[in-house]
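Blinded run. Sample ID left blank on purpose so nobody reads anything into the name before looking at the predicted structure. Input follows.
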Amino acid sequence: MSGSNGSVLRDKVAVVGVGCSQFGENWDKSPEDMIVEAAYEAYADAGMEDPHKQIEAVFCSAVYPSRGTSEVAEALKLFDRPVSLVQNACASGTDAFRYGVMSIAAGVYETVLVVGFDKPKDRGVSGPSIASNGVRDFPMTPAGWFSLCAARYFEKFGAGREDLARIAVKNHHNGTLAPKSMLKKEITVEEALSARMISWPFGLYDCAAQSDGAAAVILTRRDLAKRFTSQPVLVRAVAIALAANPQQDPDFDFLGWKPTVYAAKQAYAMAGISNPRKEISLAQVHDCFTLTELLTYEDLGFCEKGTAKEHIRSGTFALDGELPVNTDGGLKTFGHPTGATGVRMIYENTLQLRGKANKRQVNNPQIALSHNIGGAPQVCGIAILGLP
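Blinded prediction complete.
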């Protein structure tokens, strides 16, 4: 759906229920356990009296499912309706949400469930599990690949490891205020800088953790939303965009993510946003590495190219700043069960817009953005929510 026909989508669909499991090394929980935990919290949040009759379709996202859609259908006993699996790298959760939104906007369904989940710990995964091959013909891990971008950005714009450390400190602080996060540990800039090196300039605290988790969202038509909740949140935009593989793109400059720029252009056109820095109240962005968050500030138009370090140092993106980013601690403290992450971000943004984020609540939010980037990275998903 391009920006030219985004009005077909804008504000037609409402989020009426959200839920989230505890994220972490959930050795004592199966994928079904986490799915039930997230979905039943969403049912209760939406005031659903009989979800088995009210939910017409399910869109789920998972990158490492052992049985795919059957895990969701079996867990929730939703057998006599379509249950579809969406996979689009780290943007899978946002894309499943997009499928749900568009199915309602198109008039196919009235009420659907979106569930994102993954349990990589059962696969013996302690960190990024997929090697990135072909970076100028040098195979390396995601940390190695993303660190090349950090080195180039430092050289071009004069940022340094201290700026990345401040992002980690911010996200760790925010994560201590989020009950469902995995890591609840305050850190200092000094601790971040002295942590063991993973791939220069990334130390341990510059890299997101790996975890298990699930999150759920219930969507319905805007005109039906008050049947479920007195606090519906409207879907202003949802976009997916791809770009050339940066590891093979001769025009890639190591200073930003083309898929983020493309998806943001789509999403802002759909939502009618011309000045994201001023119009967006808060954002959840894909901080697989601290450098990824830094580049995303600029790619989303939150600040000019090359100026992120000044905003990091002045607190623009802090919880009490002008544009709070990763209010729940992001991937840094929740970890990254791939299929769940995008839906978890929508869970957080919904709580924030309703004023129900407790100790991490930002002041009077009106519009919230979530951002996932994945693959080389080659794909980006963006969702924008707003109050009626």
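Unblinding after everyone has recorded impressions. The two ends are 22 Å apart (CA to CA).
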